[in-house]
Design goal:
The structure holds two protein chains of two kinds.
Chain A (H helix, E strand, L loop, with lengths): L1 H43 L8 H16 L2 H7 L1 H8 L4 H26 L3 H9 L4 H12 L1 H18 L11 H11 L3 H29 L3
Helix pairs in contact in A: 1-2, 1-5, 1-8, 1-9, 1-10, 2-5, 4-5, 5-8, 6-7, 8-10, 9-10
Chain B lengths: L1 E12 L2 E13 L4 E5 L6 H6 L9 E6 L2 E2 L5 H9 L1 E4 L11 H11 L4 H14 L15 H12 L6 E5 L7 H18 L2 E6 L2 H7 L2 E6 L2 E7 H6 L4 H7 L21
Parallel strand pairs in B: 3-8, 3-9, 6-7, 7-8
Antiparallel strand pairs in B: 1-2, 1-4, 4-5, 9-10
Classes of the chains: A mainly alpha, B alpha/beta.
The structure holds adenosine-5'-diphosphate and magnesium ion (MG).
Chain lengths: 220, 262
Amino acid sequence: MAEFFDNYGALLAQGTIDTLVMTIASCIFAYVIGLPLGIWFAVTAPGGLKPNTAVNTVLGWIINIGRSIPFIILLVAIIPFTRLVVGTSLGVPGAVVPLTVAAAPFVARIVEQSLAEVDKDLIEAAHSFGSSNAQIVVKVLLKESLPSLVRGAAITFVNLFGYSAMAGTVGAGGLGDIAIRYGYQRFQGDVMLAAVILCVVLVQVFQSLGDWLARSIDKR
Amino acid sequence: MIELKDVGKVYNASDGDHRALDHINLTIADGDMFGIIGESGAGKSTLVRHLNLLERPTEGRVIIDGVDITDFQGKELRELRASIGMIFQNFSLFQQRTVLQNVMFPLEIRREPKAQNAERAHELLRLVNLDDKAKRYPSELSGGQKQRVASARALANNPRYMLCDEATSALDSRTTMQVLDLLADINANLGVTMVLITHSLAVARRVCNRIAVIDSGHIVEEGTTDEVFTNPQSEVTRELLGWGSDSASDRADGGDSEGGER
Ligand SMILES: Nc1ncnc2c1ncn2[C@@H]1O[C@H](COP(=O)(O)OP(=O)(O)O)[C@@H](O)[C@H]1O
Ligand SMILES: [Mg+2]
Protein backbone atom coordinates (compact mmCIF):
# COMPACT_ATOMS: atom_id res chain seq x y z
CA MET A 1 0.00 0.00 0.00
CA ALA A 2 2.71 2.43 1.04
CA GLU A 3 4.71 1.38 -1.97
CA PHE A 4 1.73 2.02 -4.21
CA PHE A 5 1.42 5.55 -2.91
CA ASP A 6 5.14 6.16 -3.26
CA ASN A 7 4.92 5.15 -6.88
CA TYR A 8 1.60 6.64 -7.93
CA GLY A 9 0.61 9.16 -5.24
CA ALA A 10 2.07 12.14 -7.09
CA LEU A 11 0.52 10.98 -10.35
CA LEU A 12 -2.93 10.65 -8.79
CA ALA A 13 -2.59 13.97 -6.98
CA GLN A 14 -1.67 15.71 -10.22
CA GLY A 15 -4.57 13.95 -11.94
CA THR A 16 -6.98 15.16 -9.27
CA ILE A 17 -5.72 18.72 -9.59
CA ASP A 18 -5.96 18.64 -13.40
CA THR A 19 -9.48 17.27 -13.28
CA LEU A 20 -10.61 19.84 -10.73
CA VAL A 21 -9.01 22.75 -12.61
CA MET A 22 -10.61 21.64 -15.89
CA THR A 23 -13.98 21.06 -14.31
CA ILE A 24 -14.12 24.22 -12.21
CA ALA A 25 -12.75 26.49 -14.95
CA SER A 26 -15.07 25.16 -17.66
CA CYS A 27 -18.01 25.25 -15.24
CA ILE A 28 -17.39 28.93 -14.52
CA PHE A 29 -16.97 29.83 -18.19
CA ALA A 30 -20.00 27.75 -19.15
CA TYR A 31 -22.08 29.82 -16.74
CA VAL A 32 -20.58 33.08 -17.98
CA ILE A 33 -21.97 32.16 -21.41
CA GLY A 34 -24.90 29.91 -20.51
CA LEU A 35 -26.52 31.95 -17.73
CA PRO A 36 -27.25 35.07 -19.81
CA LEU A 37 -28.23 32.83 -22.72
CA GLY A 38 -30.63 30.87 -20.50
CA ILE A 39 -32.14 34.07 -19.09
CA TRP A 40 -32.60 35.44 -22.60
CA PHE A 41 -34.17 32.16 -23.68
CA ALA A 42 -36.60 32.19 -20.74
CA VAL A 43 -37.51 35.85 -21.15
CA THR A 44 -38.30 35.50 -24.87
CA ALA A 45 -40.28 32.27 -24.45
CA PRO A 46 -44.03 32.33 -25.19
CA GLY A 47 -45.65 33.59 -22.01
CA GLY A 48 -42.30 34.92 -20.83
CA LEU A 49 -41.50 38.44 -19.67
CA LYS A 50 -40.91 39.70 -23.21
CA PRO A 51 -42.02 37.03 -25.64
CA ASN A 52 -40.19 37.07 -28.97
CA THR A 53 -40.84 34.07 -31.15
CA ALA A 54 -38.05 34.74 -33.66
CA VAL A 55 -35.31 35.21 -31.07
CA ASN A 56 -36.60 32.33 -28.97
CA THR A 57 -36.70 29.94 -31.92
CA VAL A 58 -33.15 30.79 -33.00
CA LEU A 59 -31.87 30.46 -29.42
CA GLY A 60 -33.65 27.12 -29.16
CA TRP A 61 -31.90 25.86 -32.27
CA ILE A 62 -28.49 26.99 -31.11
CA ILE A 63 -28.98 25.43 -27.69
CA ASN A 64 -30.27 22.14 -29.06
CA ILE A 65 -27.62 21.80 -31.72
CA GLY A 66 -24.98 22.54 -29.09
CA ARG A 67 -26.38 19.85 -26.86
CA SER A 68 -26.69 17.22 -29.56
CA ILE A 69 -23.07 17.11 -30.73
CA PRO A 70 -21.20 14.24 -29.04
CA PHE A 71 -18.44 15.69 -26.90
CA ILE A 72 -15.63 13.64 -28.39
CA ILE A 73 -16.52 14.96 -31.85
CA LEU A 74 -16.85 18.52 -30.61
CA LEU A 75 -13.45 18.21 -28.95
CA VAL A 76 -11.78 17.51 -32.27
CA ALA A 77 -14.02 19.63 -34.48
CA ILE A 78 -13.33 22.87 -32.69
CA ILE A 79 -9.57 22.47 -32.43
CA PRO A 80 -8.98 25.50 -34.72
CA PHE A 81 -11.31 27.57 -32.54
CA THR A 82 -9.59 26.33 -29.38
CA ARG A 83 -6.23 27.39 -30.80
CA LEU A 84 -7.64 30.78 -31.60
CA VAL A 85 -8.92 31.30 -28.05
CA VAL A 86 -6.12 29.91 -25.87
CA GLY A 87 -3.26 29.58 -28.38
CA THR A 88 -3.08 25.80 -28.04
CA SER A 89 -5.35 22.82 -28.42
CA LEU A 90 -3.40 20.78 -25.90
CA GLY A 91 -3.20 20.42 -22.16
CA VAL A 92 -5.64 21.77 -19.61
CA PRO A 93 -6.32 25.05 -21.48
CA GLY A 94 -6.92 23.04 -24.65
CA ALA A 95 -9.55 21.01 -22.81
CA VAL A 96 -11.28 23.89 -21.02
CA VAL A 97 -12.40 25.48 -24.30
CA PRO A 98 -14.28 22.44 -25.69
CA LEU A 99 -15.65 21.61 -22.24
CA THR A 100 -17.00 25.16 -21.99
CA VAL A 101 -18.48 25.04 -25.48
CA ALA A 102 -20.12 21.70 -24.70
CA ALA A 103 -21.54 22.78 -21.35
CA ALA A 104 -22.76 26.30 -22.17
CA PRO A 105 -25.88 25.19 -24.12
CA PHE A 106 -26.64 22.66 -21.41
CA VAL A 107 -26.37 25.42 -18.79
CA ALA A 108 -28.62 27.68 -20.89
CA ARG A 109 -31.25 24.97 -20.99
CA ILE A 110 -31.26 24.14 -17.28
CA VAL A 111 -31.20 27.82 -16.34
CA GLU A 112 -34.22 28.34 -18.58
CA GLN A 113 -35.96 25.40 -16.90
CA SER A 114 -35.26 26.77 -13.45
CA LEU A 115 -36.58 30.21 -14.36
CA ALA A 116 -39.66 28.75 -16.03
CA GLU A 117 -40.57 27.05 -12.75
CA VAL A 118 -41.06 30.39 -11.02
CA ASP A 119 -44.74 30.93 -10.31
CA LYS A 120 -46.34 33.26 -12.88
CA ASP A 121 -48.38 34.82 -10.08
CA LEU A 122 -45.21 36.16 -8.50
CA ILE A 123 -44.21 37.81 -11.75
CA GLU A 124 -47.63 39.35 -11.99
CA ALA A 125 -47.38 40.59 -8.39
CA ALA A 126 -44.00 42.13 -9.17
CA HIS A 127 -45.51 43.88 -12.20
CA SER A 128 -48.28 45.19 -10.00
CA PHE A 129 -45.69 46.94 -7.79
CA GLY A 130 -44.26 48.65 -10.87
CA SER A 131 -41.20 46.45 -11.39
CA SER A 132 -39.32 46.74 -14.67
CA ASN A 133 -38.49 43.56 -16.57
CA ALA A 134 -34.85 43.81 -15.54
CA GLN A 135 -35.88 44.06 -11.89
CA ILE A 136 -38.13 41.05 -12.28
CA VAL A 137 -35.28 38.99 -13.77
CA VAL A 138 -32.94 39.79 -10.89
CA LYS A 139 -35.28 40.19 -7.93
CA VAL A 140 -37.90 37.59 -8.78
CA LEU A 141 -36.76 35.06 -11.38
CA LEU A 142 -33.17 34.57 -10.23
CA LYS A 143 -33.91 35.10 -6.55
CA GLU A 144 -36.88 32.72 -6.40
CA SER A 145 -35.20 30.02 -8.47
CA LEU A 146 -31.84 30.14 -6.70
CA PRO A 147 -32.13 26.70 -5.05
CA SER A 148 -33.06 25.19 -8.40
CA LEU A 149 -30.18 27.03 -10.09
CA VAL A 150 -27.78 25.63 -7.52
CA ARG A 151 -29.06 22.11 -8.16
CA GLY A 152 -28.54 22.69 -11.86
CA ALA A 153 -25.00 23.90 -11.24
CA ALA A 154 -24.23 20.71 -9.30
CA ILE A 155 -25.50 18.61 -12.21
CA THR A 156 -23.45 20.66 -14.68
CA PHE A 157 -20.38 20.24 -12.51
CA VAL A 158 -20.75 16.48 -12.32
CA ASN A 159 -21.37 16.22 -16.07
CA LEU A 160 -18.27 18.26 -16.80
CA PHE A 161 -16.33 16.08 -14.40
CA GLY A 162 -17.30 13.09 -16.50
CA TYR A 163 -16.59 14.80 -19.82
CA SER A 164 -13.19 15.88 -18.60
CA ALA A 165 -12.13 12.22 -18.62
CA MET A 166 -12.15 12.44 -22.40
CA ALA A 167 -9.87 15.44 -22.33
CA GLY A 168 -6.99 13.00 -22.03
CA THR A 169 -7.35 12.73 -25.79
CA VAL A 170 -5.80 16.18 -26.08
CA GLY A 171 -3.20 15.51 -23.41
CA ALA A 172 -4.90 17.45 -20.67
CA GLY A 173 -4.39 14.71 -18.11
CA GLY A 174 -6.77 14.28 -15.23
CA LEU A 175 -8.12 11.25 -13.40
CA GLY A 176 -10.08 9.90 -16.35
CA ASP A 177 -7.01 10.01 -18.51
CA ILE A 178 -5.01 8.12 -15.87
CA ALA A 179 -7.71 5.46 -15.59
CA ILE A 180 -7.73 4.94 -19.35
CA ARG A 181 -3.98 4.97 -19.83
CA TYR A 182 -3.12 2.70 -16.92
CA GLY A 183 -6.15 0.49 -17.10
CA TYR A 184 -6.56 -0.16 -20.81
CA GLN A 185 -3.13 0.51 -22.18
CA ARG A 186 -0.82 -0.77 -19.46
CA PHE A 187 -3.15 -3.21 -17.73
CA GLN A 188 -2.38 -1.76 -14.29
CA GLY A 189 -5.74 -2.38 -12.71
CA ASP A 190 -4.70 -1.01 -9.32
CA VAL A 191 -3.91 2.45 -10.67
CA MET A 192 -7.11 2.46 -12.70
CA LEU A 193 -9.10 1.44 -9.65
CA ALA A 194 -7.51 4.16 -7.52
CA ALA A 195 -8.31 6.80 -10.16
CA VAL A 196 -11.89 5.58 -10.49
CA ILE A 197 -12.38 5.56 -6.72
CA LEU A 198 -11.09 9.13 -6.55
CA CYS A 199 -13.57 10.11 -9.28
CA VAL A 200 -16.45 8.49 -7.43
CA VAL A 201 -15.53 10.12 -4.13
CA LEU A 202 -15.11 13.56 -5.69
CA VAL A 203 -18.41 13.35 -7.56
CA GLN A 204 -20.17 12.28 -4.36
CA VAL A 205 -18.62 15.13 -2.43
CA PHE A 206 -19.56 17.80 -4.97
CA GLN A 207 -23.06 16.47 -5.55
CA SER A 208 -23.72 16.32 -1.80
CA LEU A 209 -22.29 19.79 -1.41
CA GLY A 210 -24.64 21.06 -4.12
CA ASP A 211 -27.65 19.31 -2.60
CA TRP A 212 -26.83 20.60 0.84
CA LEU A 213 -26.36 24.16 -0.40
CA ALA A 214 -29.61 24.06 -2.39
CA ARG A 215 -31.50 22.70 0.59
CA SER A 216 -30.08 25.19 3.05
CA ILE A 217 -30.97 28.23 0.93
CA ASP A 218 -34.43 26.98 -0.03
CA LYS A 219 -37.04 28.62 2.20
CA ARG A 220 -40.12 27.10 0.63
CA MET B 1 -61.49 58.44 -8.42
CA ILE B 2 -61.30 55.57 -10.88
CA GLU B 3 -63.44 55.69 -14.01
CA LEU B 4 -63.93 53.03 -16.62
CA LYS B 5 -65.48 54.37 -19.81
CA ASP B 6 -66.93 51.84 -22.21
CA VAL B 7 -64.13 49.39 -21.47
CA GLY B 8 -64.10 46.22 -23.52
CA LYS B 9 -61.65 43.36 -23.60
CA VAL B 10 -61.34 40.66 -26.21
CA TYR B 11 -58.83 37.88 -25.66
CA ASN B 12 -57.37 36.03 -28.60
CA ALA B 13 -57.62 32.56 -27.14
CA SER B 14 -56.40 29.45 -28.92
CA ASP B 15 -59.98 28.50 -29.75
CA GLY B 16 -60.85 31.91 -31.20
CA ASP B 17 -61.65 35.35 -29.86
CA HIS B 18 -63.26 35.57 -26.48
CA ARG B 19 -64.98 38.68 -25.17
CA ALA B 20 -64.22 38.91 -21.46
CA LEU B 21 -65.51 42.46 -20.87
CA ASP B 22 -68.22 44.36 -22.71
CA HIS B 23 -68.96 48.10 -22.41
CA ILE B 24 -67.98 48.41 -18.80
CA ASN B 25 -68.87 51.79 -17.29
CA LEU B 26 -67.95 52.19 -13.67
CA THR B 27 -67.00 54.97 -11.30
CA ILE B 28 -65.23 54.23 -8.05
CA ALA B 29 -65.19 57.28 -5.79
CA ASP B 30 -62.46 58.15 -3.31
CA GLY B 31 -62.98 56.43 0.00
CA ASP B 32 -65.18 53.72 -1.48
CA MET B 33 -64.95 50.13 -0.47
CA PHE B 34 -66.20 48.92 -3.80
CA GLY B 35 -67.25 45.31 -4.24
CA ILE B 36 -67.32 43.58 -7.60
CA ILE B 37 -69.15 40.29 -7.41
CA GLY B 38 -69.90 37.61 -9.91
CA GLU B 39 -69.53 33.94 -10.53
CA SER B 40 -66.33 32.25 -11.53
CA GLY B 41 -65.41 33.21 -15.08
CA ALA B 42 -67.63 36.31 -15.07
CA GLY B 43 -64.67 38.60 -15.77
CA LYS B 44 -63.89 39.94 -12.28
CA SER B 45 -60.14 39.38 -12.41
CA THR B 46 -59.99 40.71 -15.94
CA LEU B 47 -61.81 43.84 -14.83
CA VAL B 48 -59.65 44.57 -11.81
CA ARG B 49 -56.46 43.94 -13.79
CA HIS B 50 -57.46 46.80 -16.06
CA LEU B 51 -57.28 49.26 -13.19
CA ASN B 52 -53.48 49.02 -12.99
CA LEU B 53 -53.09 48.03 -16.63
CA LEU B 54 -51.87 44.51 -15.95
CA GLU B 55 -54.32 44.04 -18.79
CA ARG B 56 -54.95 46.62 -21.51
CA PRO B 57 -58.46 47.23 -22.80
CA THR B 58 -59.20 46.55 -26.43
CA GLU B 59 -61.83 49.32 -26.27
CA GLY B 60 -62.61 52.24 -23.98
CA ARG B 61 -60.61 54.30 -21.53
CA VAL B 62 -59.35 53.91 -17.98
CA ILE B 63 -59.15 57.19 -16.09
CA ILE B 64 -57.61 57.63 -12.67
CA ASP B 65 -57.89 60.93 -10.82
CA GLY B 66 -58.91 62.58 -14.06
CA VAL B 67 -55.88 61.32 -15.98
CA ASP B 68 -56.40 58.99 -18.90
CA ILE B 69 -53.92 56.19 -18.20
CA THR B 70 -55.01 53.82 -20.95
CA ASP B 71 -51.91 54.35 -23.07
CA PHE B 72 -49.35 54.73 -20.29
CA GLN B 73 -46.03 53.04 -21.10
CA GLY B 74 -42.61 52.49 -19.55
CA LYS B 75 -41.69 54.56 -16.52
CA GLU B 76 -45.04 56.32 -16.41
CA LEU B 77 -46.82 52.98 -16.30
CA ARG B 78 -44.52 51.56 -13.61
CA GLU B 79 -45.02 54.61 -11.42
CA LEU B 80 -48.76 54.37 -11.82
CA ARG B 81 -48.69 50.70 -10.80
CA ALA B 82 -46.49 51.46 -7.82
CA SER B 83 -49.12 53.91 -6.61
CA ILE B 84 -51.84 51.23 -6.60
CA GLY B 85 -51.57 48.39 -4.09
CA MET B 86 -52.73 44.90 -4.98
CA ILE B 87 -53.37 41.66 -3.12
CA PHE B 88 -54.18 38.26 -4.57
CA GLN B 89 -56.12 35.08 -3.90
CA ASN B 90 -52.99 33.00 -3.40
CA PHE B 91 -51.11 35.79 -1.61
CA SER B 92 -48.22 35.82 -4.12
CA LEU B 93 -45.59 36.26 -1.46
CA PHE B 94 -42.00 35.76 -2.55
CA GLN B 95 -41.04 32.40 -1.07
CA GLN B 96 -37.32 33.07 -0.82
CA ARG B 97 -37.74 36.35 1.00
CA THR B 98 -38.53 36.92 4.64
CA VAL B 99 -41.72 38.63 5.66
CA LEU B 100 -39.77 41.86 6.11
CA GLN B 101 -38.09 41.54 2.71
CA ASN B 102 -41.47 40.90 1.11
CA VAL B 103 -42.86 44.10 2.53
CA MET B 104 -39.72 45.94 1.44
CA PHE B 105 -40.01 44.68 -2.15
CA PRO B 106 -42.15 47.53 -3.56
CA LEU B 107 -39.81 50.05 -1.90
CA GLU B 108 -36.74 48.32 -3.29
CA ILE B 109 -38.28 48.50 -6.74
CA ARG B 110 -38.52 52.26 -6.43
CA ARG B 111 -34.91 52.45 -5.23
CA GLU B 112 -35.73 54.08 -1.92
CA PRO B 113 -32.86 54.29 0.58
CA LYS B 114 -32.40 50.90 2.23
CA ALA B 115 -32.31 51.88 5.89
CA GLN B 116 -35.59 53.76 5.63
CA ASN B 117 -37.15 50.79 3.82
CA ALA B 118 -36.65 48.48 6.78
CA GLU B 119 -38.06 51.06 9.13
CA ARG B 120 -41.10 51.59 6.94
CA ALA B 121 -41.61 47.83 6.55
CA HIS B 122 -41.56 47.31 10.32
CA GLU B 123 -44.08 50.10 10.68
CA LEU B 124 -46.39 48.37 8.18
CA LEU B 125 -45.95 45.01 9.89
CA ARG B 126 -46.96 46.59 13.19
CA LEU B 127 -50.05 47.90 11.43
CA VAL B 128 -51.06 44.35 10.44
CA ASN B 129 -49.92 43.00 13.80
CA LEU B 130 -47.16 40.79 12.46
CA ASP B 131 -43.96 42.58 13.37
CA ASP B 132 -42.94 39.62 15.54
CA LYS B 133 -42.90 37.45 12.40
CA ALA B 134 -40.64 39.81 10.40
CA LYS B 135 -37.80 37.29 10.11
CA ARG B 136 -39.96 34.35 9.11
CA TYR B 137 -40.46 33.03 5.61
CA PRO B 138 -43.92 32.81 4.00
CA SER B 139 -43.88 29.02 4.26
CA GLU B 140 -43.85 29.45 8.04
CA LEU B 141 -47.08 31.46 8.13
CA SER B 142 -50.78 30.59 8.17
CA GLY B 143 -53.03 31.68 5.30
CA GLY B 144 -54.43 34.62 7.22
CA GLN B 145 -50.97 35.77 8.23
CA LYS B 146 -49.83 35.52 4.63
CA GLN B 147 -52.64 37.75 3.46
CA ARG B 148 -51.85 40.27 6.20
CA VAL B 149 -48.23 40.35 5.06
CA ALA B 150 -49.44 40.80 1.48
CA SER B 151 -51.63 43.68 2.66
CA ALA B 152 -48.68 45.32 4.40
CA ARG B 153 -46.67 44.90 1.21
CA ALA B 154 -49.46 46.43 -0.87
CA LEU B 155 -49.42 49.48 1.40
CA ALA B 156 -45.67 50.01 1.21
CA ASN B 157 -45.83 52.86 -1.28
CA ASN B 158 -48.69 54.65 0.47
CA PRO B 159 -51.16 53.87 -2.30
CA ARG B 160 -54.42 55.75 -2.67
CA TYR B 161 -56.01 52.65 -4.15
CA MET B 162 -55.85 49.01 -3.28
CA LEU B 163 -57.07 46.17 -5.49
CA CYS B 164 -58.05 42.90 -3.84
CA ASP B 165 -58.67 39.97 -6.16
CA GLU B 166 -60.44 37.20 -4.23
CA ALA B 167 -58.26 38.11 -1.28
CA THR B 168 -60.17 35.89 1.14
CA SER B 169 -61.16 33.04 -1.15
CA ALA B 170 -58.34 30.77 0.01
CA LEU B 171 -59.09 31.38 3.69
CA ASP B 172 -61.42 29.73 6.18
CA SER B 173 -64.38 31.76 7.38
CA ARG B 174 -62.90 32.99 10.65
CA THR B 175 -59.68 34.14 8.97
CA THR B 176 -61.74 35.66 6.19
CA MET B 177 -63.46 37.89 8.72
CA GLN B 178 -60.13 38.96 10.24
CA VAL B 179 -58.66 39.87 6.87
CA LEU B 180 -61.86 41.70 5.86
CA ASP B 181 -61.77 43.69 9.07
CA LEU B 182 -58.15 44.59 8.38
CA LEU B 183 -59.06 45.79 4.88
CA ALA B 184 -61.98 47.78 6.27
CA ASP B 185 -59.59 49.32 8.80
CA ILE B 186 -57.16 50.29 6.08
CA ASN B 187 -60.02 51.84 4.15
CA ALA B 188 -61.40 53.75 7.13
CA ASN B 189 -58.19 54.80 8.87
CA LEU B 190 -55.75 55.29 6.03
CA GLY B 191 -58.34 56.50 3.53
CA VAL B 192 -57.30 53.94 0.95
CA THR B 193 -59.97 53.38 -1.69
CA MET B 194 -60.56 49.65 -2.06
CA VAL B 195 -61.74 47.57 -4.95
CA LEU B 196 -62.73 44.18 -3.65
CA ILE B 197 -63.32 41.32 -6.03
CA THR B 198 -65.21 38.38 -4.65
CA HIS B 199 -67.56 35.60 -5.63
CA SER B 200 -69.03 35.67 -2.14
CA LEU B 201 -71.97 37.92 -1.33
CA ALA B 202 -71.34 37.58 2.38
CA VAL B 203 -67.87 39.02 1.95
CA ALA B 204 -69.13 41.96 -0.07
CA ARG B 205 -71.97 42.60 2.33
CA ARG B 206 -69.72 42.70 5.38
CA VAL B 207 -67.39 45.46 4.22
CA CYS B 208 -68.45 47.13 0.96
CA ASN B 209 -70.38 50.38 0.66
CA ARG B 210 -71.01 49.92 -3.05
CA ILE B 211 -71.40 46.83 -5.16
CA ALA B 212 -71.35 46.05 -8.84
CA VAL B 213 -72.47 42.67 -10.13
CA ILE B 214 -70.75 41.32 -13.21
CA ASP B 215 -71.97 38.51 -15.40
CA SER B 216 -70.40 37.27 -18.62
CA GLY B 217 -68.39 40.47 -18.96
CA HIS B 218 -71.36 42.79 -18.38
CA ILE B 219 -72.14 44.91 -15.35
CA VAL B 220 -75.70 43.85 -14.65
CA GLU B 221 -76.26 45.81 -11.49
CA GLU B 222 -74.64 48.57 -9.50
CA GLY B 223 -75.59 50.44 -6.38
CA THR B 224 -75.07 50.82 -2.65
CA THR B 225 -74.77 47.58 -0.73
CA ASP B 226 -78.18 48.16 0.82
CA GLU B 227 -79.83 48.76 -2.53
CA VAL B 228 -78.32 45.67 -4.08
CA PHE B 229 -79.20 43.43 -1.17
CA THR B 230 -82.70 44.70 -0.49
CA ASN B 231 -83.86 45.52 -3.99
CA PRO B 232 -81.85 43.62 -6.57
CA GLN B 233 -82.62 44.74 -10.11
CA SER B 234 -81.15 41.92 -12.16
CA GLU B 235 -81.98 38.27 -12.43
CA VAL B 236 -78.31 37.40 -11.88
CA THR B 237 -78.20 39.23 -8.56
CA ARG B 238 -81.44 37.65 -7.42
CA GLU B 239 -79.95 34.29 -8.20
CA LEU B 240 -76.74 35.12 -6.35
CA LEU B 241 -78.89 36.14 -3.39
CA GLY B 242 -80.76 32.89 -3.57
CA TRP B 243 -84.06 34.50 -4.45
CA GLY B 244 -86.03 32.28 -6.73
CA SER B 245 -83.19 29.90 -7.26
CA ASP B 246 -82.47 26.91 -5.09
CA SER B 247 -78.91 26.43 -6.25
CA ALA B 248 -77.78 29.82 -5.10
CA SER B 249 -78.23 29.45 -1.37
CA ASP B 250 -74.95 27.63 -0.90
CA ARG B 251 -73.11 30.48 -2.61
CA ALA B 252 -74.12 33.15 -0.19
CA ASP B 253 -72.56 31.66 2.91
CA GLY B 254 -69.18 33.27 2.28
CA GLY B 255 -65.77 32.38 3.53
CA ASP B 256 -65.80 29.15 1.65
CA SER B 257 -62.45 28.18 0.33
CA GLU B 258 -61.50 27.86 -3.28
CA GLY B 259 -58.08 27.05 -4.60
CA GLY B 260 -55.08 26.12 -2.56
CA GLU B 261 -52.85 27.90 -0.14
CA ARG B 262 -49.22 28.37 -0.64
N1 LIG C 1 -55.38 35.45 -20.89
C1 LIG C 1 -56.59 35.02 -21.27
N2 LIG C 1 -56.79 34.53 -22.51
C2 LIG C 1 -57.99 34.12 -22.91
N3 LIG C 1 -59.09 34.14 -22.15
C3 LIG C 1 -58.97 34.60 -20.90
C4 LIG C 1 -57.72 35.07 -20.39
N4 LIG C 1 -57.92 35.48 -19.11
C5 LIG C 1 -59.22 35.28 -18.84
N5 LIG C 1 -59.87 34.77 -19.90
C6 LIG C 1 -61.29 34.43 -19.98
O1 LIG C 1 -62.04 35.57 -19.61
C7 LIG C 1 -63.14 35.20 -18.80
C8 LIG C 1 -63.10 35.93 -17.48
O2 LIG C 1 -62.02 35.47 -16.71
P1 LIG C 1 -61.69 36.05 -15.29
O3 LIG C 1 -61.64 37.53 -15.37
O4 LIG C 1 -60.47 35.39 -14.79
O5 LIG C 1 -62.97 35.59 -14.45
P2 LIG C 1 -63.23 35.65 -12.88
O6 LIG C 1 -62.08 36.33 -12.22
O7 LIG C 1 -64.51 36.39 -12.73
O8 LIG C 1 -63.39 34.23 -12.41
C9 LIG C 1 -63.08 33.68 -18.64
O9 LIG C 1 -63.98 33.12 -19.55
C10 LIG C 1 -61.67 33.34 -19.00
O10 LIG C 1 -61.59 32.08 -19.58
MG1 LIG D 1 -60.66 35.59 -10.83
